[in-house]
Design a protein that fits this description.
This protein is an all-alpha fold. The protein is built from 14 helices and no strands. It has helices spanning about 1-25, 35-55, 55-60, 65-85, 90-105, 110-120, 125-150, 155-170, 170-185, 190-215, 230-250, 255-265, 270-280, 285-310.
């Protein structure tokens, strides 16, 4: 248990430090601008490039792994969406954001740091694949579903072009693609460039977690929405369980790949869910509450999951 606390407390401590500093300094959200730019466009892409470029290409070509992960994640999306639509009787566009509240984990900011701390460099490739492919699919599904809801009023060809551009130019995906190329061609990256990438990659997790804490502090919880009653267990319990089941059924993967995927699925709701709600002018306050509450509870749920994994209580494959 001491090992789990030593792993989790410093990690979530960075979020707490960001939260406390934001409360003490009373800065506006705009002050995070350049830090977020550094995290999204420089530090995290450097980390993804580093992880992927140093991996044998045969380990990167795991199509069945990423397909199973995406299938499990979108089963969760469908569950949260359908509850909102047919039990809560919410509007279609509200249910779309609610679906992401249950299925879109904070894999970009929290995934690489926690995954590598928990499982070491062996988890680098599954973490990078999950972050890139899940983000890419979310970028496609969100505008497509909002177009169905009627909140996207642009012509279809403009919408498709924007989605393609967003996916093709996202820094996470570009960095991972470059890493694939380096790994496939076995290119030698100059030592000076490698050192620069290493410095940037080391800054990714601390900066991302600090920024996340600040962001949470700047979005105070005004009320607890009814949806929290089922979104919290869906995100923090059902999502990792479904990923565990789908990966166990899909094939024979390395234990650390399954464990890393389950851990990433157990992460709290991503701050991007609030950004989506803000973009479409729907479900913003409830998205903010979902992010805050799942993040607080995940301190305990993620700790419990890591304890179960490290003590052999959660076998990596349900059907060995």
């Amino acid at each position: 248990m001491a090992d789990i606390l030593a792993l989790v407390l410093p990690f979530f401590g960075l979020i707490l430090i960001g939260f406390v500093v934001a409360k003490l300094k009373h800065q506006t959200a705009e002050t995070l601008g350049w830090l977020n730019v550094f995290i999204i466009y420089v530090a995290l892409p450097a980390l993804f490039f580093k992880l992927v470029s140093r991996t044998p290409i045969e380990d990167l070509a795991q199509v069945d792994f990423i397909a199973a992960d995406l299938f499990g994640t979108y089963l969760v999306f469908a569950l949260a969406f359908l509850i909102g639509r047919y039990i809560r009787r919410n509007r279609f566009d509200e249910c779309v954001i609610q679906g992401f509240g249950g299925a879109y984990g904070n894999i970009g900011y929290m995934g690489p740091g926690l995954g590598l701390l928990a499982f070491g460099d062996q988890a680098a490739v599954p973490v990078a694949l999950i972050v890139c492919f899940e983000n890419a699919l979310h970028f496609m599904v969100a505008p497509a579903m909002m177009a169905i809801a009627g909140d996207e009023r642009r012509p279809a060809h403009q919408l498709v072009l924007e989605v393609v551009k967003k996916v093709a130019t996202h820094p996470f995906i570009v960095a991972t693609a470059l890493g694939f190329i380096v790994a496939a061609l076995r290119l030698e990256v100059p030592v000076a460039a490698l050192r620069l990438v290493d410095y940037l990659a080391q800054a990714a997790a601390p900066c991302a977690l600090f920024a996340m804490g600040v962001t949470l502090a700047l979005r105070p919880l005004k009320r607890i929405p009814v949806e929290i009653g089922y979104l919290v267990p869906i995100k923090l319990v059902v999502h990792p369980m479904l990923i565990w089941i789908t990966l166990s059924l899909a094939g024979s993967f390395k234990p650390v790949w399954i464990q890393a995927a389950v851990l990433l699925a157990a992460l709290p709701t991503a701050t991007n869910v609030f950004v989506l709600g803000q973009q479409y002018g729907v479900w913003q306050e409830r998205a903010s509450a979902t992010i805050l509450i799942t993040t607080v509870i995940s301190v305990f749920s993620v700790s419990a999951l890591l304890f179960a994994i490290t003590n052999g209580l959660l076998p990596p494959d349900l059907f060995p």
